[in-house]
Amino acid sequence: MAGACSTLCLIIITLFIPPLGVFMIAGCGVDFWINVLLTILGYFPGHIHAFYLEYVYYDRRDSDPLTRASQRPAPGVYSDRIQNGGHRHTPADLNYGTV
């Protein structure tokens, strides 16, 4: 229930202020500044970009960790947090042979 509530709140925030919705899932990075620029240039391109980033984020967040690790990067997404669905990415050499 908490996941559905946070998703709904994020969608409502994105409807009114698209860069704020992107900031909430990606932080202050390249994706945020691209969305600010798109929103300034046209309100609807900012919405399309924000909802695309949210779709990628929630799609990868709900996927299996093994599936997520084998997926190709989503095109046009520069944030590692969105690419990994908000999960920490542990490089293979840090787990010391344990799975």
UniProtKB/TrEMBL annotation:
PROSITE patterns: UPF0057 (PS01309). The keyword Membrane applies. Residues 67-99 are annotated as: Disordered. Keywords: Membrane, Transmembrane, Transmembrane helix. PANTHER family: HYDROPHOBIC PROTEIN RCI2 LOW TEMPERATURE AND SALT RESPONSIVE PROTEIN LTI6 -RELATED, UPF0057 MEMBRANE PROTEIN ZK632.10-RELATED. It is found in: Membrane. Signal peptide: none annotated. One of its GO terms (cellular component) is membrane. It holds the Pfam family Pmp3. Belongs to the UPF0057 (PMP3) family. This is Stress response RCI peptide. The chain crosses the membrane at residues 7-26, 32-53.
